[in-house]
Amino acid sequence: MLGFLPPLVLGVIAFTLLLVNTLFWCALLFLLALVKLAIPLRAVRPFLDRTLNAVATSWIACNSAWMRLTQRTEWDVEGVDALAYEGWYLVNSNHQSWVDIFVLQHLLNRRIPMLKFFLKRQLLYVPVMGLAWWALEFPFMRRHSDAYLKANPQKRFDDIETARRACEKFARVPTSVMNFADGTRFTTAKHQAQKSPYTHLLKPKGGALGLALGVLGAKFHSLLDVTIVYPRGAPTFWDFLCGRTRRIVVRVRQVEIPAELLAGDYAGDSRHRKALQRWLQEIWREKDAQIASILGEARHDAS
Description:
Order of helices and strands: HHEEHEEHEHHEHHEHEH
Distance between the termini: 28 Å
CATH architecture: 3-Layer(aba) Sandwich
Largest sheet: 6 strands, mixed
């Protein structure tokens, strides 16, 4: 609707709407979080958890509203119409930009239970949003280098315990556990440093998926595998606010989780860990081929 405005003006308007929306709903989140701390009774926790999730869902819905108002983005989406707003979902996606989070929330909000992300611990200190994520009990994971873990092997289990406790909380009310299996945003430099066998993806990591399945496996209907493609290249968040992201392609499919992976000790059982990695790598090969096909079609249409 406002897409005719110059990009800079559009970006300022979009950022202002995002800021006002965030401050309003986060104020309610913080009040509810204080109530949750003041009344630590198991009997009221499910009600408070649902109320907190409802507030966050409203924040996302208002984000979608300002996106529709300010963006001229063409959305090419398949696979979301058959989703049901009930039960528990395990959601997996490739990761390229902060925009990915807004894409996922915009398309999946109120189609499935609220997305709960595994976040880097540094994000706890992001103004306003860090406290909001804490109030919603998003799991904050520490990211250690391989060299650090070799020198301090006991630290390897810190994230395992954090993820386990978070997933136990997710069992109280229907939740969508969201994970970026590549663990970080895709860049050409990271792709080359990893010597990734995939053309458009980094190597997938199964830790968060494995831990979620170990605690909540029996509750998950299936894996919701999401592929996000930006035909003109992954945008920065500012580019997105300025309306420069003209087309976003998203493909969603439900993948059956093998029965043998619905329970198991990912951290302690090497056979279970290798089986899950093989399953995830196959999904990643299919995703890589799908991205190549989408980009090929986009180049053909542009020529």
